[in-house]
Specification:
mainly alpha; three-stranded antiparallel sheet; elongated
């Protein structure tokens, strides 16, 4: 009953919003405005990340070629889904075709020849190297 009462009074909002006093808030009246001491605990951050990765993994598994990739190559795909979102990842048609064909050098070239690579810099270089080698990066 307590939870129902608080949800009724606070409201339930699934995105960040400004409350009646203009403070950044989310969920059920959860203050996230850092100037006022709001934010997320490490456990909450890990929980959100785990949920996001679960969704990205499920999206990755819809590609018929995904299961045949090494774990590091799978991680590259999941990471790109996480970073870009599925609609933008699906714009990487040449990279995906190269992955499906097992041409990981071409897939890496296509990854690096993108606006995404220019935006994320070293992350793109690291992931392209993982795509080529099929091995985890050190560090």
């Amino acid at each position: 009953k307590l939870i129902e009462m608080i949800k009724h009074h606070e409201g339930v909002v699934a995105h960040a919003y400004k409350d009646s006093r203009g403070y950044l808030t989310i969920g059920v009246g959860r203050l996230i405005d850092e100037e006022l001491g709001g934010g997320l605990s490490d456990d909450e951050i890990d929980y959100l990340l785990a949920n996001d990765l679960k969704r990205c993994q499920a999206e990755a598994e819809t590609y018929p070629w995904f299961a045949g990739l090494s774990e590091p190559r799978q991680a590259v795909v999941v990471s790109m889904l996480f970073n870009l979102g599925k609609p933008r990842w699906d714009g990487f048609k040449k990279a995906q075709a190269a992955i499906e064909a097992g041409d990981y050098g071409e897939a890496a070239s296509q990854m690096l020849d993108s606006r995404w690579a220019a935006q994320v810099g070293k992350r793109a270089e690291d992931m392209a190297a993982m795509m080529i080698s099929g091995e985890w990066m050190d560090g």
